[in-house]
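Margin note: ligand = flavin-adenine dinucleotide.
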Amino acid sequence: MADSTLYRELLSFLSGRARTDEPMKKHTSWRIGGPADIFVEPGNRQELRLIVSYARNRGIPLTVIGAGSNLLVSDSGIRGIVVKVGDGLARIYIDGDVVSAEAGAKLGRVAAAAKDAGLGGFEFSAGIPGTIGGAVVMNAGANGSSVGVLAQRILILSLEGDFSYKSKKDMNFGYRSSVIQTEPAIVVEVAFACYPREKEMIDKEMAGYLARRKASQPICCPNAGSVFKNPPGESAGRLIEAAGLKGMRIGDAQISTLHANFIINLGSATARDALKLIDRARDTVYSRFGVELQPEVKFTGHN
Ligand SMILES: Cc1cc2nc3c(=O)[nH]c(=O)nc-3n(C[C@H](O)[C@H](O)[C@H](O)COP(=O)(O)OP(=O)(O)OC[C@H]3O[C@@H](n4cnc5c(N)ncnc54)[C@H](O)[C@@H]3O)c2cc1C
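Resulting structure:
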């Protein structure tokens, strides 16, 4: 339950974009997650900084999310303040071959803006949901490339409330990983190095990726994309399928019959249901094949 004094104080400098006891299932692609004590959507980077300083000065836990497309939020929700970096920080600028985007801009919008300017680089991302902030933290990728390949200069806000820049090297991008996963900070804006390319070529390549995605991934039901990372030289989906788990259901959570590395929400799945399936898949794959699957999705919230 949110502290009402805290909430009123936050409202006073956030012109209305704060809510209490906000169901997180409204903010995750899995449509799973209990209430956030206080949920705020900053309208610009100054507001973001104010929230960060406010939380720090009062010792209030702060959780940052983007579009929630890689998140499993617990059924009892999140204590403290949840900051959604979204539409309030979503500007996109293009200068020559460099595409810059604020962290709340959707990856798909940034790819479309690059294409419209005749700039290639983002083709790989066709169909990956989420924001630029989430994409950089996760080093989102597909089709042999990833956001970290293009990202050059990243403006971050530390949890102490200071802005600074990181270079590609500082970010230590790896397979679905970046330094922000081990040294938490908030991604505010990113500059991407693109290159001139004909729009028709970009369109054609992206359409091909989208068609492949539609044929191989469940679009019927809420999900969070791949649940596990692919082990080196292997496919997590193939291992889960070979372990005989395709279609397995716990409550309203089900291992997709189309792609075994996806867990779909059939209607009212809980985080508990999804976690039980995740554990089952991990344990069974380990006992059958000796491979330890590592989750790609991020867990957050109170147990
Ligand atoms: C149908 C579907 C298909 C998908 N396909 C792919 C795919 O092909 N490749 C792939 O890589 N991923 C894929 N994903 C996963 C997801 O789209 C990516 O991980 C995406 O980049 C997450 O972005 P987000 O804004 O939703 O982040 P969120 O899920 O909101 O957050 C992810 C992590 O980033 C942190 N975070 C978010 N924004 C910020 C910020 N501004 N500053 C600091 N930390 C932040 C959060 O705390 C969290 O730890 C898929 C998901 C779905 C639902």
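The CA atoms of residues 154 and 190 lie 5 Å apart.
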